[in-house]
Structures are given as structure tokens and as C-alpha cells.
Amino acid sequence: MMHRDQLLAALNGWLEPQRFRDYCPNGLQVEGQPEISRIVCGVTASEALIDRAIQLGAQAILVHHGYFWRGEAPELVGRKAARLRKLLRHDINLLAYHLPLDVHPQLGNNAQLGGVLGITVTGQVTAGDVPGLLWHGELPSAMKPCDLAQYVGSRLQRQPLLIAGNEDRYLRTIAWCTGGAQGYLDQAKALGVDVYLSGEVSEQTYHAALEEDIVYLGAGHHATERYGVKALAARLSDEFEVETVYVELENPV
Asked: Which domain holds residue 85?
């Protein structure tokens, strides 16, 4: 059992959300009961995740994608009202960390994805005015594009979209940024890497990758961002008397 204030102090101490100008509030987004013994963790605070938290008797939900995004309609109606109604009715805290959980050098999505893929990290650079958001490194071995796509698919349990002009080349270096970061392809190219991996893909990504002669892998927004919240949950359960339960809700995007 731990108090909500203790939980927030730990998470904010590790992730330092005050350093970021984010698209949403980081930390406690919806206040629930003060004493917490079980935390349900997931990628996105969907209604399905809230339902699982209720079933599991959790007092808190910890996610990467929470609520109250910049530019969204402010009215509490429809889907937004239904989600908040369930949280408030069951007195469940909602905590969310977006950019802080992408960037963290050990617990973050990029750091954890690099570990899952066996990449040797060589550095992090600023992207989108966020220091350390774009990572780069060396692949575990030289691979042709199709072999790399198969490798990534086997590690993430989701086959990525591959864009490769020359499929006979051997790829040795990679840059990556999880989630919807396909727009950083030009910055990845400027790093001199062979391949860029992100979660999503846009129509123009296809043309840009071919014209820049860089291999692109769209490995899934959800699939690339499972690992930060898992690492965060594991650290919480290691350091405090609180149970964390990661809930995987399949999402093909």
C-alpha cells in the first residue's frame, strides 16, 4: 500500500515532467482514492483499460496516453464523459506520462525498444524541440531490409511496414523514435543511418524514404510504446509495496 502523493513523488522524481513542454498534462490527470495497493498499467487510457482496472480492483491506472490533449474539444461529452464517469464513480486515479516516458534514458519507450531490438545505442538528439527524443545506434548484426523487417516483427509480435528502394543492401545503423514520429525521417537521414524506425507512417513517408534513399520501418504506434510503461510498472513494484498489473489490449495501429 502506498499513498497517492508518494506515488506521484516517485514518478515525478524519475521522469521529471517539469522539463517538458508537452501536448498534455503529465502526472495525475484524474484524482481518485488516496491509498493505492494495485495499479493497472497500459499504453492508452481507453474505456476497455478502465473496465479491466475496475475488474481487477485497482485504485490507479498508469498510462503513456492519457487525456486532455492540446487542441481537443474541451467539452466533457460522449466518449470522454463515459471514461471520466467510470473513473470518478469507482474512485480510480489516472496518471499519464507522455514525452517524459519517451525520453527517459532507462525507463523510456525509446530506451526500452532499443533493448528489445538488441540495438547498441550510440546517441540521442533533439527532435521536435524535445532534447533526446530521437535515438540512434547499431543493429545487432548487418541485415538486408526484408530480414530486418522479419526480425522486428518477431521481436514486437507485429509485422512492420517496410519501405526500401534497394532491398539487396546490408543495413548496419538505425535511428528510431516510438509512436507517431514518422516526421523525423529527414533528421534520421541527416544522422547518416541506414534505416529509420518509428510507429506510424504517412502517405508522404513513402516518397520521402525512397527519395532520401533511407529504409523506413513503420512498426506500430502501440507496438513500439508498450515497453516504457512496463518498465515503469516494474520499477514501482520493485521499490514500493504496491502491485502493478500490465494489461495488453491489442491494437493493430
From this structure: 2-98+226-246
- pLDDT value at residue 68: 96
Do 108 and 203 lie in one domain? The reply is yes
Per residue in 28-50, pLDDT tens?
999 999 999 999 999 999 999 99
> Is residue 126 in a domain?
yes
> Is 15 domain-assigned?
yes
Claim: this prediction has a pTM higher than 0.70: yes
- Supply the CATH number for residue 242's domain: 3.40.1390.30
pLDDT value, residue 7: 98
Q: Give the pLDDT confidence of 73-99 residue by residue, as tens digits.
A: 999 999 999 999 999 999 999 999 999
Q: What is the DSSP letter of 182?
A: G
Residue 38, pLDDT score? 98
How many domains does the chain divide into? 2
Same domain, 157 and 138: yes
Measured distance CA(144)–CA(186) in Å, rounded? 21
pLDDT band at residue 100 using 50, 70 and 90 as cut-offs: very high
